[in-house]
Amino acid sequence: MNKLLIVGTVAFDAIETPFGKTDKILGGAATYIGLSAANFKNVDSAIVSVIGDDFPQEYLDMLAAKSIDLSGLETVKGGKTFFWSGKYHNDMNTRDTLETQLNVLENFNPIVPEGYKDADVVMLGNLHPLVQLGVIEQMTKKPKLVVLDTMNFWMDCALKELKQVIAKVDVITINDEEARQLSGEYSLVKAARVISEMGPKYVVIKKGEHGALIFDKENVFFAPALPLEEVFDPTGAGDTFAGGFSGFIASTGDVSFDNMKKAIVHGSNLASFCVEKFGTERMENLSREEVSNRLLQFKALTQFEIELN
Ligand code: AMP
Questions:
Q1: What spacing in Å lies between the alpha carbon of 260 and ligand 1's midpoint?
Q2: Is position 97 within any domain?
Q3: Which of 17, 93, 227, 252 could bridge to 88 as Cys pair (CB 3.0-4.6 Å)?
């Protein structure tokens, strides 16, 4: 078994889309990453995060039933769980954050479980950069791969700390707008180059319904998103993508660029399920057969023969 250590928020979300509105439901970057990575064989995963004692036991039971180790998930007595609310525009590709309440995240000191200090892959999901840094520092063995996901919120309020983490990771996954904000470059090719100069060898740029790109110094590869008839709620798609990417790398133990190409296809494949229902619902009830059938659709979508005369 290979080990995947996941860091990120475990949260309450309130979401509004053109199709409807939810009250506080289960969300959080680490939640989506964990549910996504649970689809791979040969991987043990653990979440490092923090919740308040307002967090329902049934959510914990659901994550534990997916064999996710929760010993690094701290519960603060009397504390309130991180809360995020967002509203999607009609195109479903862009959204406004209505509210972010850090709550228990404000004073969180992460503790990596003893058994995961030698994890093969570390997936630093969206959360305060200093927490992400604190996790890297606790590793007793250099991981095969450290992947970082982040968002504009942290660029706006903790850019210096974010750059410190970026300098220490192998892969960064980031969406197109955030890549532009971080690099100051509009062209994504130039943006990837500038971000790579900050530290990561590989830069993955997520473009929502337009797929994802992976760059290293010499190469670039693109995976489309599956064209779906209906997108119900895109929340968590980026984290689900990151969970698919890191889960696949952990399950194979192969950190070559060729394997990363496959990893972004797995990430896109899993993200295509996430958006079909509100919140985590679709990811909670996903069969191996559904996942493999859709991978075949991806293959059919992208493979073609071409003859050059
Ligand atoms: P995504 O749609 O992939 O960007 O992820 C949405 C998830 O990220 C939601 O479930 C939120 O709880 C979580 N989230 C939103 N804002 C933040 C933030 N500033 N830091 C960490 N997690 C966040």
A1: 24
A2: yes
A3: 17
Q: Which atom of ligand 1 is nearest to the CA of 235?
A: 2
Nearest CA to ligand 1 atom 14: 28
Token couple for 120: 């093969």
Strand partners, 25: 13
Whether 308 is covered by a domain: the verdict is no
Distance 173 CA to ligand 1 centre (A): 14
Nearest CA to ligand 1 atom 13: 28
Across residues 149-178, what is the average pLDDT?
A: 96
Q: What is the pLDDT of residues 207-266, one digit of tens each?
A: 988 899 999 989 999 999 888 888 889 999 999 999 999 999 999 999 999 999 999 999
106: number of Cβ within 10 Å: 11
In a domain, 190, yes or no: yes
Q: Based on the structure, what is the number of domains in the chain?
A: 1
Q: Which domain holds residue 182?
A: 2-302
Q: Whose Cα sits closest to atom 9 in ligand 1?
A: 28
- Structure token pair of residue 189: 């090719």
Is residue 309 situated within a structural domain?
Answer: no
Residue 293 has, within 13 A of its CA and on its CB side, a CA count of 6
- pLDDT, tens only, 218-235: 999 999 988 888 888 999
* Beta-carbon contacts of residue 171 (< 8 Å; ≥ 6 apart): 145, 146, 147, 148, 200, 201, 202, 203, 204, 245, 260
